[in-house]
Design a protein that fits this description.
It is built from seven helices and eleven strands. The chain is an alpha+beta fold and about 280 residues long. It has one domain: Hotdog Thioesterase (Thiol Ester Dehydrase, Chain A), CATH 3.10.129. Strands 1, 2, 3, 4, 5, 6, 7, 8, 9, 10 and 11 form an eleven-stranded antiparallel β-sheet that branches.
Length: about 280
């Protein structure tokens, strides 16, 4: 039965509980670029247990409700990540029981054969304390579900990057096994591991998780906006504009305008912009 905007808005999403440990935090950091300089002290603070600093974009995978769009009846094979917005209210604590509450906040129908956009919001708190730790807003492009109608209030659009040369350019190569490593953070969508499934979705081979690219963006900012060491973001958002394949070399253009950081990511070998409309603020 085709999905409707009303059924998505009303779809009950159970709360999810998770206690994050050091192994979770280290695995996430290794899968999003922080292992690039394995003998540097600032990087090691995010990679070894003693005095561990939790990478902020880890929040994207904490207490995640899983393939809720598939469970709601969306054509899962035709779904791709369109946009992500993450606000860190306070660092993710280790060894503390956490809980997330999720809800669908808008559906934007583009019409039959054109797909629709579904946006969900996830709030992460500590058990027994409703003060938010992180707020995660995710928009999915559901390419096989157009004609479902619209509901809710769409998000304010992200702003384009500045029309001038970037203040910094950061390049990093994504390892060939990046998707196989990143999936261990909890996203087991076969689009990122199964060649036959990826082909059925229209891709020549498995693609990298959008949130893995997003994590690399946070790392690029952390590495580029200070002369030494690493800094953490308190807010980061971007639009996914093209797929990344494991093994691609990513080039990040970064602009600094007072407290705002703007960015985009490109794969020069394919002349593809893969992240755009990027916006971040430091913690």
């Amino acid at each position: 039965m085709p999905v409707s905007a009303a059924s998505l808005m009303e779809f009950p999403i159970p709360d999810v509980r998770q206690t994050v440990n050091a192994r979770d935090a280290i695995l996430y950091a290794l899968s999003t670029g922080y292992g690039a300089e394995p003998v540097d002290g600032a990087h090691l603070r995010r990679l070894v247990e003693r005095d561990l600093i939790v990478t902020p974009t880890l929040a994207n995978v904490v207490a995640d409700p899983g393939p809720l769009m598939e469970e709601a009846g969306v054509d899962w094979q035709q779904l791709v990540h369109a946009e992500q917005r993450l606000t860190i209210h306070r660092p993710i604590p280790l060894g503390t029981p956490l809980r997330s509450h999720s809800r669908v906040i808008s559906v934007v129908d583009r019409g039959p054969d054109k797909g629709m956009f579904a946006t969900s919001e996830r709030t992460i708190v500590a058990e027994g304390d409703e003060t938010p730790i992180a707020s995660v807003i995710q928009t999915n492009a559901c390419r096989g579900d157009g004609g479902c109608g619209s509901a809710g209030k769409p998000l304010e659009p992200l702003h384009p990057v500045p029309d001038r040369s970037a203040d910094a350019v950061f390049t990093i190569k994504v390892p060939a096994d990046a998707a196989l490593l990143y999936r261990l953070n909890g996203d087991l969508n076969p689009l990122h591991a199964n060649p036959a499934y990826a082909a059925g979705a229209g891709f020549p081979r498995p693609i990298l998780h959008g949130l893995c690219t997003f994590g690399y963006a946070s790392y690029a900012i952390a590495r580029s906006v200070v002369a030494e060491g690493l800094v953490d973001v308190g807010f980061i958002a971007a639009r996914f504009t093209a797929v990344v394949f494991p093994g691609d070399a990513l080039e990040f253009d970064i602009w600094r305008e007072k407290s705002d950081i703007h960015f985009r990511a490109r794969v020069p070998a394919r002349n593809a912009t893969v992240l755009d409309y990027g916006h971040a603020r430091l913690a």
